[in-house]
Structures are given as C-alpha cells and as structure tokens.
Amino acid sequence: MLKRNHIGKLLNHNLRLTTGIVVCILSLFLIGYISDHDVPLEGKVSHEDIVEQHIEVVDTVPLNYFVANGIVADSLLLYEGIIKKNQNLSEILLKFNISYALIAQLANKSKEVFEVRKFVVGKKYNVFYSNDTLQKAISFIYEIDAANYVVYNMLDSIRIYRERKEVDTEIMMASGEITSSLWQTMADNNINFNITVNLSEIYAWAIDFYRIQKGDYFKVLYEEKFVDGESVGIGKVIAAYFNHYNHDYYAVYFEQGEAADYFDENANSLRKAFLKAPLKYSRISSRYSMKRFHPVQKRYKAHLGTDYAAPRGTPIMSTGDGVIQKSGYSKGNGNYVKVRHNSVYSTQYLHMNKIKSGIRKGVRVRQGDVIGYVGSTGLATGPHVCYRFWKNGRQVDALKVSVPPSLPVEKKYRSEYEKVRDEMIQKLRGLDVEV
Ligand SMILES: [Zn+2]
Q1: Residue 307 Cα, ligand 1 centroid: separation in angstroms?
Q2: How far apart are CA 50 and CA 62, in angstroms?
Q3: Domain range holding 154?
Q4: Is the per-residue pLDDT at 21 higher than 80?
Q5: DSSP state of 171
Q6: What is the mean pLDDT of residues 273-279?
Q7: Which residues surround ligand 1, an ion (CB under 5 A)?
Q8: Is residue 23 part of a domain?
Q9: Shared domain check, 134 and 52
Q10: 212 with 177: CB under 8 angstroms?
Q11: What is the pLDDT of residues 154-189, one digit of tens each?
Q12: Cα 186 from Cα 13, distance rounded (Å)
C-alpha cells in the first residue's frame, strides 16, 4: 500500500508567529495577489502574453487533436490566462475573434459536459489561436482543478470533452515536537495547514490542543496528491501518533464497509458521538437555514441553529462532555449556555427559562448532564431550545455535521484492522522525531 516514504523536513522551530490565523491571512493575501496580477488581456493579444513552447495546463491532448486535423504546431500560438471577476466564455473568446453565434453554440453544447457559468475566478485557462492575422481561437481549455479540465475544440465542428490528468497519491511522513501551539509547531516544521486541521479533528476528543505542553510530540502519515510531479493537495491522514503527557495516542484510518473512521490500538473509535438532541422528548420546530422568516422580527434572516419545541421546564442536556464556556443572558438569546467540548466542537443552548444552578463558566459537564430548562426568554415566540453547533469556530448545522458514531471496529473486520494497525504502528515507530 505504501508507495514511497518521504520524511517530512523539520526546520528550526524558534519562529514566534502567533497561530494558524497568520497562515490564513497570508493565503488570502496570496489569492488576492494572484487575481490582481494576472496576465492583462486588453483587445488584441500582445506578444508578452504569448507562450509558444511552455504548455503547462494542457499536456498534449489538444495537440494530438490538432495534428490529427493537419495543423502544424508552428501555426498555433498559446495564450495562458486566469479567469477574472465577471469574466465569461464570450468575453474571453470574442477577443480571439470567435463570433457570438459560435460562442452561444459552445455554451449550449457544453451543458452536457460542463456548465460554462461555473467558471471560477482565479482558475487557469488556455487558448490556442492561429498564428496569422486572424488570431482566431481554435481551442479553449479551462482548468477545473489541477487534475481536471474541459477542452473546447472549434476547428471545423465543435467538440467539447473533459480530460483528466493522472493523479499520483503518495504516502508522506511528518513529525515534530511541540514547542508552542500545535498550529505554530506545524507551521514551523513546514507541515501543510490541512494536516494540522485533520490532526486536530482526529484527536479532538482525546487531546485538547489548547492544553498541549512543551515536549509533546507527534508523527503523522498522510496522503499527498501529485499531478505531473507537482503537489496539488493533501489527502487524508492515514495514521498518526501523539505523545501527550507521556501517553501514547495512536490513530489509524480504517474503512469498514461503507464507514471510515480513526481507531486506536485497541480498535476503539477515537471519537465520541454527540447526543442527537439536547432534549429527550421533543420535536424539531425549525431547522438550520441560511434564510428563514423570523417569527418575532418578521423578516428573513439566517437561522444558525436547530429549534426543538418542548414544554416550559423540560430539562436541557449538554450533548457532549465539556466545559462551560459561557452562561448568562442576552437580549436575543435570553438565558443561554455555551459548552466547549474540545478544541474543535462547541454547542450552545438558547432561550432557557432558567439556567441550572451551578452551571457557570469553567464548570465541567458530562454528556447528558442537565444544564438548564426550556423557556422562551430572549427573541422567542414559544417555549423551545435553540441548539447551536460550532466546528472549528464556524457555526454548522448540528443535524448535518458528520460526526460518525463512536463504535469500535466491527468483529468481522477485526483481523483486517489488526493487520493495517500493525503495519501503521510499525511505520510510525520507525520514524524518528527530529528536533
Ligand atoms: Zn433557533
């Protein structure tokens, strides 16, 4: 299963940047930079824009087509562009002297293959056009992502098709010792931000990454995807090891039947499930929605929670183990409680008639513990609890968030799991943590 092992490079970890937020801001900045500085295309194609030899996006697929149609490579020029804001197929192709009528035909014919309205700002495209005074496009290629693209050939008849470059998945390794935060350590060790996010989710229930200590260390095996030898993204983490306060935490990815999850060395799931609802007997009266008619404010606004209607006084339970993060009153929420389950998940419960006594900031609660009672305080028409769910600081639909059930590996897959586990643990043990 392992094709090649690469040992993640460890750089010195003395940098003092704050958190992963810096990484986010940097990448936003980069995205902004790229879209602001793409190749200009005003009217006629200028010579600086022309790249005759370097065909990066398209490989040889259209070239074969041209050759098959008797076109000599010399008679073509290539324009490499990046989709700009509000730019569409006709805007691009009109500059390459394609008629409105033909563009309309292309857009129409494209529907079965790719919806041209789905062009995304910042994506690459290529236009092959004739190296003569006509400068007429004969092929337009849009890159959906690093591996997939759509080809529009308009030589004599229209031909539109999708192509896929081969994606190689390789297993990579990385490791590091915690010097400050997980985010900082990963950034200092040049480990992809997505691996950090994956790790924090895999270990969410086992390790509170806001309380890790100096000297904790980790090793991780993960997939990385390559197209033409260039990295195009990170796949899943396939196994990891975390040494936290001198305890071993193994996580091994395993697919059993339809479901996949991370399991420890004893074949137990690393996750704990949330209770389906914060009330024992209830009905959903309003679902999570980006746009719903607010019954009190009489206008459309996002409803970032799930409402459960129940009689006043019905006990409200914390849906998972955690620590009370907030408990109090606000005009909109009424009496409310927010529970932090770990560094990934938090939940909140609104409009309580009363918060249970003793439920205040810093208090630890177990799954199923009563934290308050149903009411209609704040902006509410009748007694209900508005249940809100956060994942990595973002509100999500509690009913749709994919937290698989925390079941161990099924009996019938046990021996298969043990084989995978042993192989992974052996690989992890063989990897030194460089500090
Ligand atoms: Zn609500």
Answers
A1: 5
A2: 17
A3: 36-164
A4: no
A5: E
A6: 85
A7: 305, 307, 386
A8: no
A9: yes
A10: no
A11: 877 888 988 887 888 999 999 888 888 888 888 888
A12: 9
